[in-house]
Amino acid sequence: MNARTGAVSAGQVAGDSTAGKIIEARDLVKSFGQTPALRGATLGVRAGEILAVMGPSGSGKSTLLHCLGGILAPDDGEVWYAGERLDTRSDDRRSELRRDRFGFVFQSGQLVPELTAEENVALPLLLSGTRRGPAMAAAREWFAALGLVGLEHRRSGELSGGQAQRVALARGLVGKPAVLFADEPTGSLDSLSGELVMDLLTAAARERGTTVILVTHDARIAAYADREVIVRDGKVSTLTGAEA
Amino acid sequence: MSVPLTLLGLLEREPSHGYDLKRDYDMYFGRGKPLRYSQVYATLSRLARDGKAVAGPAEQGAGPERRRYVITDDGIADVERWLAEPAEPEPDLQSELFAKVVLALLLDRPAGRYLDLQRAAHLQRMRALTELKRSGEPLDLLLADHSIYRLEADLRWIDHAAARLDMLAGAVKR
């Protein structure tokens, strides 16, 4: 269910345990070689919710985000999206879902340097088969929304860190994703630029009912979220003892 | 915050009646804690007694008797000195957090759990202040930022304390 509109979309409710949750991790286990990153991570995120995933460096919070977003497959456990198992899908099917339903924003260095800012924003639409004209038109709408008008034809090297991150945010949102995954989206920015990015990110998400899963170690950034969970030693908990 | 020096600062701006000073104080600094009239007039009397301000002649009108107060050179020097001095970092909250962690460790109570609950309370307050920044006036934003950065400092301390609980437990029981 969308936390703000109260709307329930088809496929979101699949049994009691997933009711109201758009995305869910159940007992996820993931190791890199001999190093365990997740050791039974369980988490449910409601549709329309902005959730901060906090935790110290190396706690497994980015690995959790990548498993939820279908970038990594867990060694054990389950990932559910809108009432369907995600982790058992083929690579191609997970790619399709990532392209069509998910958006991503990472810390930095994610723009394609050969493309203009406008082309970078339009990229997810172009890759999913939208014709260039409509894709560029959709991209341009985001330049006004994110205070980037006039920068459409610049390449990433000609943008400040804050501008580049807003372009990356536009790219994450241009496909109207149901879930936006943001991994330390302000990690490379000064505090004022970071605040601007978070203001824009949360305003855009709330306006559209987009679910946001935000990985951050920064409490000021987590304060933009509706609630927070904490990852410690590969497990997820809440600070108050409530269900994660 | 020093109420007398703040009122004196407002007086430096322009000679004012007690009523005007209370209104301006409440608007800029009150934040839900307005000054009482009795406090304003008592403060003005003390400032006049100490030579920091001078009360003008009584003005007769329809209402109660009113006097306009004017700051003196001595008062201006006080305001200038006060503004040039950094404020004493307030140790109150730090002392309470510190005392709770040490006591919890001494009493074999779950200090980590206490720190988590404190962390949740701090984050909740930070969330409310972040919302205030989104919806409030520019002065609210300035004030909210100050509170947020203070909370952030506490949260960093909480993180460090939580990471060192085992070592600290050993230290307090030696």
Describe this structure in words.
The complex is a heterodimer of chains A (244) and B (174). Chain A is an alpha/beta fold. Helix content of chain A is 32%, strand content 25%. Chain A has seven helices and ten strands. In chain A, strands 6-7-8-3-9-10 form a six-stranded mixed β-sheet. Chain A has a four-stranded antiparallel β-sheet with strand order 2-1-4-5, with helices on one face. Chain A is globular. Mean pLDDT of chain A is 90; it is low at 1-17. By secondary structure, chain B is mainly α. Chain B has two domains: 3-84, Orthogonal Bundle (Arc Repressor Mutant, subunit A); 92-172. Helix content of chain B is 71%, strand content 5%. The model of chain B has no long low-confidence stretch (mean pLDDT 87). Classes of the chains: A alpha/beta (244), B mainly alpha (174). The A-B interface holds A 56, 199, 219-220, 222-225, 228, 230, 238-240 and B 116-117, 119-120, 122-123, 126-127, 129-130, 134, 148, 151-152, 155, 159, 163.
Main attributes of the structure:
heterodimer; A: 244 residues; alpha/beta; Rossmann fold; six-stranded mixed sheet; four-stranded antiparallel sheet; 32% helix; 25% strand; disordered N terminus; B: 174 residues; mainly alpha; Arc Repressor Mutant, subunit A; 2 domains; three-stranded antiparallel sheet; 8 helices; 3 strands; 71% helix; elongated
What Rg of chain A is obtained from the alpha carbons, in whole angstroms?
Answer: 17 Å
* Secondary-structure element pattern of chain A, one letter each: EEEHEEHEHHHEHEHEE
In terms of quaternary structure, the protein is: heterodimer
Mean pLDDT of chain A: 90
Tell me what portion of residues of chain A adopts beta-strand conformation. Answer: 15-25%
Chain pair with largest interface: A-B, 13 and 17 residues
Global outline of chain B: elongated
What characterizes the major β-sheet of chain A?
6 strands, mixed
Helix proportion of residues of chain B, in percent?
Answer: over 70%
- The CATH topology label of chain A is Rossmann fold
Q: Provide the domain count of chain A.
A: 1
Strand element count of chain B: 3
CATH architecture of chain A: 3-Layer(aba) Sandwich
> Strand count, sense and closure of the main sheet of chain B?
3 strands, antiparallel
- Average predicted confidence as pLDDT of chain B: 87
**Which CATH C-level class of chain A is it?**
Alpha Beta
